[in-house]
Amino acid sequence: MSSLRLATAINVRAFQNLTNALSMSQGQWTGSIEGEALADEIGRFRVWAGNLGALQKGHSSLDYRLRDSPVLSNNALKLLHELEHNLNESHAVVSGVRA
């Protein structure tokens, strides 16, 4: 089973990849995705991860806190995987891999 910490870290990386692709798109996507709005979402995600300990190891981690609740853990993982998918799709469009 995938850990929440790993899924969260993957999403942080996906946010960074999308930000980089937007900055390299030479303004082509500024009408669709504002850099400031994306930065706000990244900030919100980091606050969420920090408040819950999603990137922590050990007893302070979200994985540890949800170890006895597979339903909550699985739901959080599903949401993180869905976010990852959406970020990757956005990156593919912005980078020109997908139209």
Automatic annotation (TrEMBL):
How is this protein named in the record? Uncharacterized protein
Please spell out the taxonomic lineage of the organism that makes this protein: Eukaryota, Fungi, Dikarya, Ascomycota, Pezizomycotina
